[in-house]
Amino acid sequence: MAQKPVALVDANNFYASCERVFNPSLRGKPVIVLSNNDGCVVARSDEAKALGIGMGVPVFQIRDIIKKHHVEAWSSNYTLYGSMSRRMMATLETLAPEVEPYSIDEAFVWLPGFSPAELDRHAVKIRQTVAMHTGIPVSVGLSQTKTLAKLANHEAKKNPVFKGAGVCNLTDFSQSELDELLSNVQVGDVWGIGPRRTRFLQQHGVLTAYDLKEMPDGWLLKNLTVTGLRTAWELRGIPCLPQEMTPPAKKTIVTSRGFGRLIESLEELTEAVTVYVSRLGEKLRAQHSVASRMEVFINTSHFASHGERYANAITLRLPQPTAYTPELVAHARRGLAKIYRPGLKYQKAGVMVLDLVPETGRQLNLFGEGEGGPEIIERNRQLMAAVDGINKEMGQGTLRLGPAGTRQTWNMRREKLSRRYTTRWDEILEITG
DNA sequence: TCTGGGGTCCTAGGACCC
DNA sequence: TCTGGGGTCCTAGGACCC
């Protein structure tokens, strides 16, 4: 039976490419994008990779390279990247009926009924159209399963045979040609095989994707659980991973940040947690969910050479499922006060909501007292909808709860932030002649 | 001085029940 | 020495992904 070909379309060096789209002077130069607080490298242009700058390295360790080679180091600008991602996905939607966005910079695209030759042409068209509409370069990998499409995409980026075209189409490979290619792929480069399993597999003589594919099912199940077994089947061309056209609602949502400087007082921690909970409430309401449980966590620095190390978390069961920010804030503050210890220098705080249920499906506490009443819940829901609407239109944080504080001197460092070219009128690209 | 943030799935083990 | 057999629910931790 003929299977449905799937393409993995993945942007090249996405964040660095986004910065270049609006700042052409960065083209041809080594560019890196930094994590929050300008801590680590999270994206690198090809030129930066060629300088030996690794993924995830702390910036302070590569100061010399940055200076010597005039590396352009930019703070991450997720507002910009999110907007560029939506443009990219919208473009893909025009090129194929079945698109599954997988992460901010990649999507699975199903192309039912295409012959291998048509797939080649369509992959080229995808690359050209995305480049034309967004300015972002992408690579395309094609095969019969998601895992093989991922692997093909990796080949399109790394293997000299495919790199020039930026496309690797495995759909017309014979089994022996495919085996040949798989035996040149390190087992650790297979999607789903992380550092831990790579080490384990190598110890057992399983060195390549081909070796993994050929292992007996019983051995795979016993040593790599059912997830490893699925990976091997996918390498054999048997789809085991579902096609998810509409993203399922999230089951947990987290908002957490490291601070721009260490903070000690409960007042400032409370201020930060209040801001995070407000953001969390927005995310929760955006997917029309309410939360039944909440976790609050704080910690000091892992790396502090002085000062005591401390990390703690508390889980609260909410009296009834809610997405009403003032209620979430009240619970978060209560939890924070319980785990706060004075005299420590805190580096990070975060809030998570768990056991999310659909807003419409919640159990209303019909006979509960006061704040639980259905009319009040409905009024609060409308209030939040109004606040979210205003913030969406006027910019995040335009309207917020008073006690969140306005100084926020603990906010993260972003020393070299590009403008929000695509989402803010006052920061739109200017053409000067 | 300086080390990201946000998710999912799977399994094992304990508490508790009949 | 030996000490039921299920079943459910919950949590913690591991492993992986971007």
Task: Present the secondary structure layout.
Elements: E1 6-11, H1 14-22, E2 31-34, E3 41-44, H2 46-50, H3 63-68, E4 72-75, H4 78-95, E5 98-103, E6 106-110, H5 116-134, E7 138-143, H6 146-158, H7 160-163, E8 167-169, H8 175-182, H9 195-203, H10 209-214, H11 217-235, E9 253-263, H12 266-286, E10 289-300, E11 311-322, H13 325-339, E12 346-358, H14 374-394
Parallel strand pairs: 2-4, 7-8
Antiparallel strand pairs: 1-6, 1-7, 2-3, 5-6, 9-12, 10-11, 10-12
The structure holds a DNA duplex (18 and 18 nucleotides).
What is the residue-averaged pLDDT?
Answer: 91
- Alpha carbon gap, first and last residue: 60 Å
Order of helices and strands: EHEEHHEHEEHEHHEHHHHEHEEHEH
Radius of gyration: 25 Å
Strand portion: 15-25%
* SS summary, helix count: 14
In helices, the fraction of residues equals 25-40%
**Strand pairing plus helix content: what structural class?**
alpha+beta
3D shape: globular
- Strand order across the largest sheet: 5-6-1-7-8
Low-confidence stretches: 366-370
DSSP strand count:
12
How is the biggest beta sheet arranged? 5 strands, mixed
